[in-house]
Specification:
transmembrane; MetI-like fold; single chain; mainly alpha; 86% helix; membrane; 2 domains; globular; 11 helices
Length: 264
């Protein structure tokens, strides 16, 4: 019985409290809009945003799927490139010295400035949007993975060498398992940044997607629809983040347990 009460208390704290705060903010928002007679094109009331969203579910759904496709492709390629590159960076000092400056250079370029150039180079198709999404998500992920691989205690490495473990065995059985918490930390950051990258790319070149929908909505002063797209983008980021959390809990429960202790 005490365990059940403790579990319900944790659920109330982790779910009920944030929902109550969010509901209170929405009510306050609604009251302020009506109380101060704020024009719809400046700040629509939550009730109006909800009604406009329901009336445009089909259109919003199509644009959401377009953005989600770009996000997932950019995130997938960032993972596919980051993991082997981080292994190379942590295995060779010469490779690290040669590659790190290039990584920093790519990160220092504002993606909103790079997007039009990519359109010229790659054409007005989906590829520039995927590349921008990849570049936004890629850097923090490769840094997180490399940090995790380098954080292995020297005692563990010495133990592996004492058993005459090969480089591949040391990487597979010692470095990668030890780096799992850092890898998933990087994945959580990267998947949310991928949403940001996709929207930035859609602002520059797109004929579909929530970023494109925000641009067209604000151009015609349909602010409630622009807020609907913003809310959907937030929900997309939250759901993708929680999906990474779920994968970590299912595949590496010990890593998820450590994360819960750290943040709980």
């Amino acid at each position: 019985m005490p365990a059940e009460r403790r579990g319900s208390g944790v659920l109330a704290q982790s779910v009920g409290l944030p929902l109550a705060v969010l509901l209170g903010l929405l009510v306050l928002w609604e009251i302020c809009v009506h109380l101060f007679s704020i024009p719809v094109y400046l700040l629509p009331a939550p009730s109006l945003i909800l009604m406009d969203s329901i009336g445009n579910l089909g259109t919003l759904g199509l644009h959401t799927l377009a953005t989600l496709k770009t996000v997932l492709l950019g995130f997938f390629f960032s993972v596919a490139v980051s993991l082997p590159l981080a292994v190379v960076l942590t295995s060779s000092q010469s490779a690290a010295n040669a590659i790190y400056p290039i990584l920093v250079l790519t990160q220092s370029i504002p993606k909103i400035a790079l997007a039009p150039i990519l359109v010229i180079l790659l054409g007005t198709n989906e590829l520039p949007r995927i590349v921008v999404t990849f570049l936004v998500a890629f850097f923090p992920l490769v840094i997180a993975i490399a940090t995790g691989l380098m954080a292995v205690p020297g005692d563990l490495l010495e133990l592996g060498r004492s058993y005459r473990g090969s480089w591949l065995q040391m990487m597979w059985r010692i470095r990668l398992p030890y780096a799992v918490p850092m890898i998933f930390s990087g994945l959580k950051v990267a998947v949310t940044l991928a949403v940001v990258g996709a929207v930035v790319a859609e602002f520059v070149n797109a004929d579909a997607g929530l970023g494109y929908f925000i641009i067209t909505s604000t151009a015609f002063f349909e602010t409630p629809l622009a807020f609907s797209a913003l809310i959907l983008l937030s929900l997309m980021g939250i759901l993708l983040f929680q999906l990474v959390v779920l994968i970590e809990r299912l595949l590496f429960p010990w890593s998820a347990a450590n994360a819960d202790k750290t943040f709980g």
